Amino acid sequence: MSPNGQTTIAERSVPHLERLPRPLYARNESLTRQTGTPRHSHTWVQLTYAIQGVLHVRTAASSFVAPPQRAIWIPAGLEHEVLSSPNTEMRSLYLDTASTDSPGGNCRVLGVDALTRELIRSFCELPVEYDETGPDGRLAQVLLDRLRTAPEVHLSLPLPSDPRLRTLCAMLQGKPDDDRPLAAWGESLGVSEKTLSRLFLRDTGLTFRAWRQRLRLLGALTPLEQGQRVTDVALLCGYESTSAFIAAFRQQFGATPGEFFRA
User: Where is this region: Disordered (predicted)?
Assistant: First the structure.
């Protein structure tokens, strides 16, 4: 179960487009329920953004999270699935690979400032087949320029390749408040604590403790964005006190929960 207490995820269909009608194409969705897509890929770049709600993109190697004011850049050809929190107002942009000079292969979270946000809002109101040579086309070009220079923010969680670690991580993703130490996990998986520790560093670049803390804090973004009390979220994430949670949150994101969502 995720920190927001949601257990049922409705499947959301993936649009089947043979080609994009324009080099930059927008798709608007209002999602009242928690939803998820099957794993898929596109021949175009996708920018997944929500003006309300929290989005998660999962690939084979990592999980990426985008609360409001952030967006997830998904390269062409990369297999992924997209999950949304309840009551998400989603605005997806599809970019023809010829319209962007950004290198492919790396999924990443981008910061979305006030100007870029309003450009996305305005572009999503245009006709599908907008005039590329007129004002609408110029708006699209300005938006593309803003996306090219958008800063990367570190809101991702690396996922291990070792099957034993994947089992461990999947269990923690389902119950992030599980406080068992690595030695106990090793005992249940039939692996020594030393081996698990070495595998965690090899596969994720993080210690087990650091990985679990990042999992908890990223998972906290959805209930916080939905207005749940910080104290309740801290307990759901496995923290014994609100102050400990806020200190860890500030260390991870450079801001308190209140500051993070006001930014």
Answer: 1-38
